Amino acid sequence: MKKRERTKQNYTRLTHPLVRDTKNGPLRRASWEEALDRAADGFRRARREHGPDSFAMLSCARATNEMNYVAQKFTRVVMGTNNVDSCNRTCHAPSVAGLSAAFGSGGGTSSYAEVEHTDVIVMWGSNARFAHPIFFQHVLRGIHNGARMYAVDPRRTSTAAWAESWLGPDVGTDIPLAHAVGREIIHAGLVNRAFVERATTGFEEYAALVEPWTLTAAQKVTGVPAAAIRELAHAYARAERAQLCWTLGITEHHNGTDNVRALINLALLTGHVGRYGSGVQPLRGQNNVQGGGDMGAIPNRLPGFQDILDPAHRAKFETAWDTAIQPRYGMTLTDMFEAMEEGGLRAVYCIGENPAQSEADSEQAIRRLAALDHLVVQDIFLTRTAEMADVVLPATAAWAETDGTTTNSERRVQRVRAAVTPPGEAREDIEILCDMAHRLGHDWKFAGAEAVWNELRDLSPDHFGMTYERLEEHQGLQWPCPDLERLPSSFLHGRLWEADPAARGRLAPFGLVEHDPPVDLTDERYPIRLTTGRRLDSYNTGVQSGSFASPLRRGEYVELCPEDAERYGVVVGERVRVTSRRGSVVAPVWVDTGLRPGLAFMTMHFPDEVDTNQLTIEANCPIAGTAEFKASAIRIEKLRVGS
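^ thats the sequence. predicted structure below, dont judge the formating
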């Protein structure tokens, strides 16, 4: 079929500062001096009139570790608050929360290479073939080396095409499915008793929790055949080595952290963690979403994932930074948007984020951003969020115009280097932040990205052994790397296998989590379950990917199964109205045989064309603050001729 014509999403590259003279007036070109003065004056005024917690920083998961370190330092030292967060909150905050609760560390436990040398790979809630194509090459090598892959996803995706078996649970039933797998492992006598007794706590309570979830009971709730659940349970438990990987199909739910804990339970039950080839791996979607959190650009951790509530951790940073750090957690991104509406948050410094289009219930997000007294956006493009700003600052592209480091999903820190000169008056993020800090009374000077990195190394034991020289020599190193001589292990938590209790350290608790269906229930008015995700050719809200050509790209569609398309009397390319309890959009139809009746699929890649986030619900995980992007209730309506 011929791809339909559509307008490109061309975003303007920012090459000079912009300011707004009146609240609803246009943005106009300004000098750097004027723009920085205006930005700093607004932050100063908010702090003076409403206190430090009236300010918040949105840091960038696509910028370098060094930028994120300086951004969170600016928030805590210059503005005096812990209100710093990033789009990590939108996607993998439940992974960090779940992994931290189980193991005391928020990173994936394995390296990419290990998936090539494992026996069983479980891809749960992850179309990695499209969403993480680089990682999926490692998966394919593992399959070619003899590994069996199981795909667990409501859609029969291109990832599932490579699987030994596809399990298609109804959206929001991952916990019952995981519990049924766990119960089958227990009843089949496949529990790794030695590991459970040595390394975990709470097994008896977990066994009691999953007992009602027989294969038959799980089949009724999840829609997955009992035989398929049994096959997955036995394959995973009997494997010598197994990797359990997940993405946003697990985390972007109102109970995302519970979903993560339910999967981690299976690794604890079988001893598939803390060994080469066996681990649990959340796959991150952006180049430095792991690193941003590692650098402290989150409201509850200082750099190196050190808890703000720990007095010893605070004291170390207070001495190094010559400041007092609030002994309480700051606002998450979710909290920030609620505080905008309530009037508690008055000024926001947004670096490299586009929340006007990436937040659930986008109409509500835009209304809340508009309520701010002062919004400063520092970015490389004039995004929808930047269009709302009082001051816009042109920055450099981290992947091509900046020196520094980034950290990927396997905790590997790697060097990036400036390859091209930034256009126009665009300036490096750290330089801008230092100029802003100077205007607010802090004389910061860094000789370059390496100087920032060395300050971080002095404060984060996990990064101390990672000098720029060693990172270049070894083409990246994985944290924790506390030693300047030895190389770090490729996997985490090997300590759990130690015979000596002292060496074993903190035991891993089973997560006692209950099934909790999606908040936005389907009914007669909204009978279709909408889930969202990514396509191979595009990226997030399309700011960075929408303006280049791709032979795969066909714009935004609402994807239906053949049966639903026939039921509604619609054909491929026909425009229909898609309505949820929050909003309505018009989108053309695409028919996908990988969907089942009652399930629709859309992406957020083309918000200027079809704003899918008008449909999604801001039902947030109470632990991690991530919204339920994966489970909205919608209806499909044919349009009248000529409408």
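The chain is about 35% helix and 15% strand.
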